[in-house]
Write a structure and sequence with these properties.
Blueprint lengths: L1 H13 L9 H18 L14 H4 L1 H30 L5 H20 L3 H25 L3 H29 L16 E5 L4 E5 L4 E10 L5 E16 L10 E8 L8 E5 L4 E7 L9 E7 L1
Antiparallel strand pairs: 1-2, 1-8, 2-3, 3-4, 4-5, 5-6, 6-7, 7-8
Length: 299
C-alpha cells in the first residue's frame, strides 16, 4: 500500500489536469534562456555583419520575457497536457514519446497546410522544443513532485548550463576556436553581379571600375531610409579593420561613388570564399534606432 501511495502521490490523488504537467512551463522557459545563452556564447563563430548586439534588444527584454512566459503556458496547454493525459490513460510512461510525436505530427500537418510550410522542418520545430517539457512533466508526475520541487531542479540544471555557456564563451574568445574569418578575394573576383532582397537590390561592378546600382539602401538627409539607383565607379580597398561586437580581422572593402546618390558607406566582404557576400551597415552607431545590414550575394 505504501508503494502504491508513493507512486500515485498528490498528482494522481488530485486527478486534475493542472497537476499532470507540473514543471513543464519551467522547463520550456529554462530551455529558451539557455538557447539564448548558447547563441550569445557562439557569437564569435558567426559573422555579425558589423552590427553586433543592437542596444534596443536590452530595452525589449521585459517584452521578450513576457512572450517566453506566454509561450510556455501555451505550449503546456496545447502540447504537454494532451501528451501527459494520454500517457496517464495508458498507464505507461514509455508512451509519452509516442504521443508527443503523434501530436507534433498533427500540429505540423495543420501548420504546413495552412501556411504552406515544409512539413519535415515544421514537425522538427514543433517537436524539438517539446521534448524537454514533456520529459520534465513525466519526471514530476512519476516522482510525485510539486511545482516547488521542479523549480529547484530546473533552476539548478539551467544554472549549470548557463555557467557552461559562460565558460565556453570565455574559452572561445581566448583561443579563437572555430572563429569566423572573412574571406580574402582578389579584385577581379568582385567584378560581376551582386543581388539582395530577393533581387530587389542590385549592384553591378565592372572590371574597369564602373558601377551600376539599383535600389541600394541609404540614409536620406531627413534621417529616413531611402533607396538610390545610378551609375558611377567603385574602388577596391583591401584589409580594413572590421567592426561589430567581435574582432573579425581586417576586411576587404568596396567603396562606391554613385552619381546622384548621397555618401555611401563602404561595402565590406562577408560570407565564405565559395559564397561571398557584400554588406553595408545602414544607420549611425551612436543612434538609438535599429541598425540594418544590407547584404548582397554574388551571382
Amino acid at each position: 500500500m505504501a508503494v502504491t501511495e508513493a507512486y500515485a502521490g498528490p498528482t494522481a490523488a488530485g486527478g486534475r489536469w493542472s497537476r499532470l504537467a507540473t514543471g513543464s512551463e519551467l522547463a520550456f522557459m529554462a530551455q529558451c534562456v539557455v538557447a539564448g545563452a548558447v547563441f550569445l556564447a557562439t557569437s564569435g563563430m558567426r559573422d555579425d555583419h558589423g552590427i553586433g548586439i543592437d542596444p534596443g534588444v536590452f530595452g525589449a527584454l521585459p517584452a521578450l520575457l513576457l512572450a517566453v512566459v506566454l509561450a510556455a503556458y501555451l505550449h503546456r496547454v496545447l502540447f504537454v497536457l494532451p501528451v501527459m493525459a494520454l500517457t496517464r490513460l495508458l498507464g505507461s510512461p514509455w508512451w509519452a514519446a509516442l504521443w508527443a510525436a503523434a501530436i507534433a505530427a498533427a500540429y505540423a500537418g495543420w501548420a504546413s497546410s495552412g501556411w504552406d510550410l515544409p512539413y519535415g522542418w515544421t514537425a522538427l520545430w514543433i517537436a524539438g522544443p517539446g521534448v524537454l517539457p514533456v520529459a520534465a512533466a513525466s519526471y514530476a508526475h512519476h516522482r510525485s513532485l510539486g511545482w516547488t520541487g521542479m523549480a529547484a531542479r530546473v533552476g539548478g540544471a539551467a544554472g549549470i548550463a548557463l555557467l557552461l555557456c559562460a565558460f565556453g564563451a570565455f574559452l572561445q574568445e581566448r583561443t579563437g576556436f572555430a572563429a569566423y574569418e572573412p574571406p580574402r578575394l582578389a579584385r577581379e573576383q568582385y567584378a560581376g553581379e551582386w543581388t539582395g532582397g530577393g533581387g530587389a537590390y542590385r549592384l553591378r561592378l565592372g572590371e574597369n571600375g564602373e558601377a551600376v546600382a539599383g535600389n541600394l539602401a541609404q540614409v536620406a538627409p531627413s534621417g529616413l531610409w531611402d533607396t538610390c539607383s545610378g551609375t558611377g565607379t567603385w574602388k577596391f580597398e583591401p584589409r580594413h579593420e572590421s567592426g561589430g561586437l567581435f574582432h573579425r580581422g581586417p576586411r576587404d572593402r568596396v567603396t562606391l561613388s554613385i552619381e546622384g546618390c548621397g555618401p555611401m558607406r563602404d561595402w565590406q566582404v562577408a560570407g565564405t570564399a565559395e559564397r561571398p557576400e557584400l554588406f553595408c551597415v545602414i544607420g549611425d552607431p551612436q543612434d538609438l534606432h535599429p541598425r540594418y545590414a544590407e547584404t548582397l550575394h554574388r551571382q
